Amino acid sequence: MVQKLEFHYTPKHGSWLNQVEIELSVLARQCLERRIADVQTLSQEIASWQSDRNSSKASVNWRFKITDARKKMGRLYPDVSPSKVDLPDY
Fold this sequence. Notes:
Helix content: 40-55%
Distance between the termini: 47 Å
Number of strands: 0
Radius of gyration: 21 Å
Number of helices: 3
Structural class: mainly alpha
Order of helices and strands: HHH
Largest sheet: none
């Protein structure tokens, strides 16, 4: 059991949740908008969709850049460059 256990870092504030929501939306529109008779067919349809989606290397086109984020939400995106951070002298 322990050999099958995998840990994945999921940041509390991050775009990963947006990516999941986008992929689920695409799945629903492209694959699930019709009635599917049974679980086996559903599983096959999703596996086929997933294979096609992965082979096409679909990606997310982010329009909100880091520089814009720093302007609009400065407290969430602080500038931590060495010249801006007070480091203790040891």
